[in-house]
Amino acid sequence: QGKLSEAAQLFGESLEIRQRLVDSDPTNTTWQRDLAMIFARLGILEREQGNPTDAYRYFNQWRDVSQRLVDSEPENAVWLNDLGSAFHNLGNVTAEQGDLPRATEFLRESIDLMRQLVESDPGNTTWQRSLSLPLDALSDVTKVQRDLTEATQLANESLDIARRLTESDPNNRQWQHDLALSLERLGELAKIQGNVPEAARYFSEEVDVLRPLAEASRDHIDWQRDMARALNRAGDLSLLLGNLPEAQRVYRESLDIRTTLAASAAPHPRRHRDLVNSYWKLGKVAMAADDFTES
After folding, report:
1. Are 45 and 54 within 8 A, CB to CB?
2. What is the pLDDT of residues 244-255, one digit of tens each?
3. How far apart (Å, rounded) are the C-alpha atoms in residues 60 and 73?
4. Looking at residue 65, what DSSP letter applies?
5. pLDDT at 169 exceeding the cut of 70
6. Measured on CA atoms in the order 160, 163, 168, 172, is the torsion positive or negative?
7. pLDDT bucket at 125, cuts 50 / 70 / 90
8. C-alpha dihedral over 27, 31, 35, 41, to 10 degrees?
9. pLDDT at 289
10. How far is CA 58 from the centre of its chain?
């Protein structure tokens, strides 16, 4: 938290300088974009510090500056991407504040702009990933609004993008992680709709995607934790389907990861809660098998 506060202070000082530059020459588009990027960084920092009102204010200023730039040069792809990203972040922070209709408006604006970029340059992987982000966000919002059909449609479109990106560069770990998140999202949607076999298929593939990342980056705590959570999701579905040996196997693998994290990483209450959760899940399997000694 201290580093975030320091970063916010430094960006705030930079903002004052960049604002003076823009005021001295409003026609300088380079200075205007620099100002927009400072608003973006300040908004992200405020959101990370749990200040959604300030984050919204900065994201809105980012949007306003980017909109002026796009109005002056509608074919500028970089500025279009900036504007789409501003709408995406406005949608995220508005959703967190509970204003889902407004968040939906922002995210649809973002998607429209990102589609425009992808259509203008279909081979540009940056634009493709930029489109996937608001698709994911809007899928989450529509899920909360119980529009599961649109939520699934949006998540499937994002999954298609993630698959194309990973196929084009199998060594890109960020894209592999994006693919895993898409599979998780669709698994949860299938589960909510009662399609347990399809949910199990998504969660199983998620584990397959995350495993190489976790094995190649043993010191990447977040990816190790993601792997443990994915294994638990797969175990939950195996338990629902009555496959107790498979449920026990993946729960134990998740427990092994969490035990290693608890022993090797700095003490953290969350890691101990994770351990308790893993033991509890294994206990459920034992009870389902009437093995009350182990449970």
Report:
1. no
2. 999 999 999 999
3. 20
4. H
5. yes
6. positive
7. very high
8. 150
9. 82
10. 21
CA dist., res. 175 & res. 180, Å (int)? 9
Tell me the residue type at 142. Answer: T
pLDDT given at position 291: 59
Query: What are 34-82's pLDDT values in tens digits?
Result: 999 999 999 999 999 899 999 999 999 999 999 999 999 999 999 999 9
Tell me if 231 sits within 8 A of 209, measured CB to CB: no
Token pair for 181: 């998140």
Q: Long-range contact list for 236-240, CB < 8 A, 24+ apart? A: 236/281, 237/187, 237/191, 237/196, 237/199, 237/200, 237/203, 238/200, 239/284, 239/285, 239/288, 240/196, 240/200
**Tokens (6 digits) for 225:** 């934790």
Residues in contact with 220: Cβ distance below 8 Å, sequence separation at least 6, in sequence order: 213, 214
Sequential DSSP letters for 138-169: HHHHHHHTT-HHHHHHHHHHHHHHHHHHHHH-
Query: One-letter amino acid identity for 3?
Result: K
Tell me which DSSP letter residue 68 carries. H
8-16: average pLDDT: 73
> Contact at 8 Å (CB) between 88 and 121?
no
- How many other C-beta atoms are found inside a 10 Å radius of the C-beta of residue 172? 15
The CB density around residue 130, as the number of other CB atoms within 10 Å, is 21
Distance CA 130, CA 110 (A): 9
Residue whose structure tokens are 């009350």: 292
Q: Confidence band (pLDDT; 50, 70, 90) for 292?
A: low
